[in-house]
Predict the structure of Biotin-independent malonate decarboxylase subunit gamma.
Amino acid sequence: MDWKKLADTLFPQGHAIVEQNDFLCGSAQVDGQALAVIGTTGHTPIGVEIALAQAKAILRTVREFPGMPILMLIDTQGQRLRHRDEMLGINSYMAHLGKCVDLARRKGHKIIGLVYDQALSGGFITSGLMADASYALPDATIRVMGLPAMARITKVSEERLTELAQSNPVFAPGPENYLRMGGLEAIWEGDLTAHLRTALAAVPDGDQRSALGLQRGGRRWAQPVIEAVMTDGHVRVD
């Protein structure tokens, strides 16, 4: 979905979001409540410039608008794969962005991630997966790695990976599979403003992704391992 159409749908009361070089930044209103909007568009890869721009926008929100909710609109093909970015330490820039998101949360800002088009690898990890809760539109594309690339890296045939993806969401792309694994809180269909209103009203209760993955049957061992580490260190295999 085009970000402008999305913004008009999400914010019928109006918004002041601007785009500059595939970076989105601005503010909007939901039922009279102001929120900051930060994101990307155009399937842009996250290089050092956009990572810094997002971090700067988050820190400015923390400094100038204490407690204001932050909506992260996500459309990225992931980390920019250029020699220049690697030499500059793109991993550190992305880590800095993640730390800024965490700082905002610790300062009382509710952070919501919305994948409205594409979310791949590190570009999603340091934005939507750092949020208090992440959501997606039904037609969004979410994956860590495409199956052809995964086949080349793992030396497992693409046919076998495709077969595994039928029963194991870890291997499969798409919002439904990330919903099963607990990476997404919900998939938004219908009235997007109502969904956003509900998300803003929800009270954060820590990181529930592993528990949701277990409950939904898409990630069966993460939560038992966490509980074992927190107790006696033994994982029971039934």
